[in-house]
Amino acid sequence: MYDSSTTNFQNKRIQLFNHDMNFHTLQNLLKQSKTLIQLHQIHSLLIKTALHFDEFILSNFILTSSPISVEYATLFFHNSPVTPSLFAWNTLIKQYSKSQTPFESVRLYCQLQTSTDLKADKFTYPFVIKACGRCALLAAGGSVHSLVLKTGFDSNSVVNNTLVRMYAGCGNVGLAGQVFDEMSDRDVVSWSSMIAACLTCNYPSKALSVFLDMKQAKVKPNSVTLVSLLSVCTRLINIRMGESIHLYILTNNIELDVSLATALVEMYAICGYIEKAMVIFNSMDERNLQSWTIMISGLAENGHGEEAISLFNDMVDLGLIPDTISFSGLLSACSHLGLVEKGQKYFDQMVKFYKIQPTMEHYGCMVDMYGRAGMIEEAYDVIRNMPMEPNSVMLRSFISAYKNHGNRISFDDNLVKLLLKIEPDLGANYVLSANMSSLSGYWNEVDDMRVSMKGKGLKKVPGCSWVEMK
User: Fold this and answer.
1) Which one, 127, 154, 349, 353, has least CB within 10 Å?
2) Which DSSP symbol is given to 221?
């Protein structure tokens, strides 16, 4: 099959070789590189013409090749006959910081510090700090922070904003707040970073407090800030605040990009306003996998299982490949609708066709689905054959199903013991265990459960719901 782009690339390569490697032509050739094979061709040409000894060419080749294959760029980097520039180091550190192997960014930074005379600059630090956050390397991140202070880069807003996110990624909102408080100049990115840090560390109320301080500082939120604020509303189930943010977006003509629109869909869906979520979802010009998955899960959780299954099929028809979260929403829908055959089919499809390793949530959906349908033996088989120990939610689901649908199979007492071991301070577990013992006629064990509850001061908390008033 004729490929004009490949032919043009080869013609320029020949032209470049025949005209003593014109630098402008080489730059164009590098920019047009899209595949590893083309990188091999250019690399070969550089060696033939001895231009791999040129530091400028080396840096440009690494800049071009690292997004295509960071491993190949690293190989070229380490085998270069000339000393790489700081630009080349920074390029690789940056590329690894956003790759699937961010630890390599930290490793390269350590090599830069120990094996060269080069000094890290304002471009180096944000990338390696980001990598420390992604790897949750608190000690390494703290060491980099100390060097930032020693070298005077603590006044750089980009470095400081990245430090806030790094400490949040390591689960330390206190240190993130300390960096934020010590900033001499805070822009919208700084405030957004601190709000996101509070969310990352599961302090939504604190995130809201930071936003109120942001308003007092008369700093206008951008779309990134608004995405975090909508996540705050989602965590706190605060529909009033969520609607006010939506109104702010509309009145200020803020563009509803895919991230912001998806955050709105999630907020409305989690807060139970599924119709509003669907309206926003249908109005989106662009949707990614996260958008579809959130809408599918929202429909399933709000009792619209048929719509969730239909939406899942629409997503697959469009060519999107479902992920583990997509299947969690789908299996949940099948469970609530009692669609056992469909649930079995989708679970098998997930494992065999999409090669997704089932998680605790997937197994939990299957146990719940079989339990609701009274298929106790099948539910028990899932628990017995799954590769991990069941959690408390799954155990309660199975034990309740067994109690409600009769004892067609002998009950495994070890499941009750495991439940009490996992959650020894929840009164409802003791009540459930006592009920199972009474069904089997083990009245002594029922008395033991009551004594144990009384001794620990435990009570069964009655069911409750959130109600928003005024």
Assistant:
1) 353
2) P
| DSSP for residue 82 | S
DSSP state letter for 62: H
Whether residue 277 contacts residue 265, with contact meaning beta carbons closer than 8 Å, is answered with yes
What token pair was written down for 274? 């599924």
CA nearest 413: which of 381, 446, 437?
437
122 secondary structure, DSSP code: T
Helix axis angle for 223-236 and 188-200, nearest 10°, is 30
Structure tokens at 211: 């936003």
How many Å is the Cα radius of gyration of the chain? 29
Residue 131's pLDDT is what? 95
- Identify whether the C-beta of residue 452 lies closer than 8 Å to the C-beta of residue 437: no
**Encoding tokens for residue 76?**
């070229």
Angstrom distance (rounded) from CA 15 to CA 2? 20
List b or e across 248-257, with b for residues whose CB sees 16 or more CB atoms inside 10 angstroms.
ebeeeeeebe
Task: Give me 394's structure tokens.
Answer: 């799954």
Mean pLDDT of 12-18: 44
Residue 122 near residue 153, CB atoms below 8 Å = yes
Alpha carbon distance 435, 429 (integer Å): 10
Question: Between the CA of residue 422 and those of 346, 372, 394, 418, 425, what are the distances in Å?
Answer: 30, 24, 12, 6, 9
pLDDT in tens, 398-436: 888 887 776 666 777 777 777 777 776 666 666 666 666
pTM of the model: 0.77
- Give φ, ψ of 237 to 5 degrees: 50, 45
DSSP secondary structure string for all residues of 333-400: HHHHHT-HHHHHHHHHIIIIIS-PPP-HHHHHHHHHHHHHTT-HHHHHHHHHHSSS---HHHHHHHHH
